[in-house]
Amino acid sequence: MKMKKANILSCVAISAVVLSGMGITNVKASDDAAVSIQKVAEKSLNPEVQNGGKVSDDFQDVSKNNLGYASKFHILAKEATLNAHTNGNLAVGSLFGNVNFGTNITDEKLLDKDISYVQEVKNMSESSFVSSNDHRTNKVVFGEVNDVELGKDNTSPLVNETPINHLLNNEIFQDKDSNEYLDFDQEFAKLENKSAGLVSSNSKTITNADFPNQNQRVIDLSDFEADANNQIVINLDPEVLNASTPLTISGLSADKGGTSIIINVDTKGQNPYAMNSQIKLRFNNGEENPIERPNQETEYFDDNHLLWNFYDSSNANKQFDGVIEMNNTFQGSVLAPDATINIHHNLDGNIVAEQVNVVGGETHRWDLQDNNNIVTVPEEPGEPDENNEGKELVDPGFTIDPTPTSPEPNPNPENPGGNVDEEDDDEDDQEIIINGGSEGDLDPNGKEVDISNPNGSDEKTLSSINEGSGLVPLTNAAQSNDTSSASGLSRLPQAGATSGILMTVAGMVMLGLGIVFKKIKS
After folding, report:
1. SS3 388
2. Which one of 166, 188, 203, 491 has the fewest CB atoms closer than 10 angstroms to its CB?
3. DSSP tag of 129
4. What's the pTM value of the predicted model, to 2 decimals?
């Protein structure tokens, strides 16, 4: 009898140990799950932050543009490092934003919304973006990996603990439920195909030998004919942009539907490729004296029909995957989807590359326009028509004065013009407004009040900048080292499965005990 009782006690003890061990394991898994869920909620499931949606929600039709969605962003890159003022919006995978960026508001007031997407913020200046006013709003989408907190009690919103002083709560969005505002891998695959497709063996290849005067190198577009797609395609030998003398593109149309100019630059295996030529643009309205465009901040984009496509004929896929050094002022949109671009001087246009580093000078947003099937590139001025009473003919494609309005200097003495590229010639550099020319109205306490958005945060504190340098000191550049994500939860034990195992074991133990007790009684 004592042996039977001992056996019973042994069974009970073993069962207790088994159950307690499983219970400890389950508690541990539950704790891990709770911690992971909490971290994911903190980083990507903040219900107060709006869902950013898809890039197609904001830009419905980009099929007519050679850059697609990239044409809507000043910089599109998998990684961008900003060390000099960047006047434009971004769509980047990883951002090292050591200075401010955003499309400044000029006297033209033509842009009603500035949209940016930053998938992962490594660091970002507090003065990033341009404050909204009655002419402009913002939409900024952050990726799920960022910790986004909306401002409360008149404080600024936070991204990875960095205050973002120029955004209102209702201007901040985030990827939700594993949705990405823009799929970078998919977009860059399209851009690689576009770059390779733009390369034409039928187009004229220009070398330095084609310029009679090396100090006055001019590509006159009236010497070329547009193709069926209303595009002029020109191939450049690598030596052309290697040269340190200016290169002028003459005969561009300033009309929104102007002829697209594609210049394919063959690097022919040079790595790094040195772009040493100052690029000058002349717009011809049918008169003898064309209008030359300077590097500038602007909201007028209708006159950008120039795309520079950097490729490498020595690669089977035609992609240039090296480094491009922009060693002089440049104008026109740049397509180099597999390259790294280091910018040392002012550059106006879209910048599309795997990696973009704004080292010096400034960059200015200037969106590439859609293709149009009406040829508008003017020919050289001809003789007056006898029925035109001796008046000179004017190119009908030219309908808007392309001379940009220089932005007014910021009246705030603490925020003077930004840095000016010291090596720019011919008075190409303009006065720069660092934190957006038109700030919102201020209340008596010096807080900015948003007029156009009464439902958002009423006030936001303006941040100061490093006076006169054009650079903003890096402050509160908190980096998120935690890489936990919602996808990691799929590897955790499920609560239902653990409970089922426990119930099964408990049932078998009880069944065993019942059999033992039955034998004892018998």
Report:
1. helix
2. 491
3. S
4. 0.67
* Distance separating alpha carbons of residues 268 and 242, to the nearest angstrom: 12
Number of C-alpha atoms within 13 angstroms, CB side, residue 41? 7
For β-strands 158-159 and 162-163, DSSP reports them as: antiparallel
Closest CA to 357 of 94, 115, 128: 94
Q: Could you read off the pLDDT of 134-167 as tens digits, one per residue?
A: 999 999 999 999 999 999 988 999 999 999 999 9
CA 319 from chain center: how many Å? Answer: 21
Q: Are 233 and 200 in contact (CB under 8 A)?
A: yes
The span from the CA of 40 to the CA of 55, in Å, is 24
**Cα separations in angstroms, 440 against 258, 362, 503:** 36, 24, 64
Residues forming a β-bridge with 124: 97
Report residue 495 as tokens: 């609560």
Give the residues across from 94 on adjacent strands: 79, 120
**CA 151 – CA 163 distance, rounded (Å):** 9
Pairing of strands 306-311, 330-331: unpaired
Mean pLDDT of the chain: 76
CA–CA separation, 73 vs 65, rounded Å? 13
Provide the 10 A C-beta neighbour count for residue 499. Answer: 11
pLDDT at 286: 55
Looking at residue 381, the DSSP 8-state letter turns out to be: -
With both helix axes pointing from N to C terminus, report the angle between 2-44 and 495-521 in degrees, rounded to the nearest 10. 170
Show the tokens assigned to 296.
């500038």
Enumerate residues 6+ apart whose C-beta is below 8 A from 398: 253, 254, 255, 283, 285, 286, 376, 378
Round to whole Å and give the CA distance between 287 and 1: 119
For residue 144, list its beta bridge partners. Answer: none
C-alpha 397/C-alpha 375 separation (Å) is 8
Q: For 253-297, where are the alpha helices, taking DSSP H only?
A: none
DSSP secondary structure letter of residue 219: E
Residue located via tokens 């009690």 = 153
Choose the weakest-confidence range: 225-229, 287-291, 415-419, 463-467: 463-467
Which residues lie below 8 Å from residue 229, measured CB to CB, with a gap of 6+?
Answer: 260, 371, 373
- The strand pair at 363-364 and 347-348 is best described as parallel
| Pairing, β 347-348 against β 279-283 | unpaired
**Which pLDDT does position 515 carry in this prediction?**
65
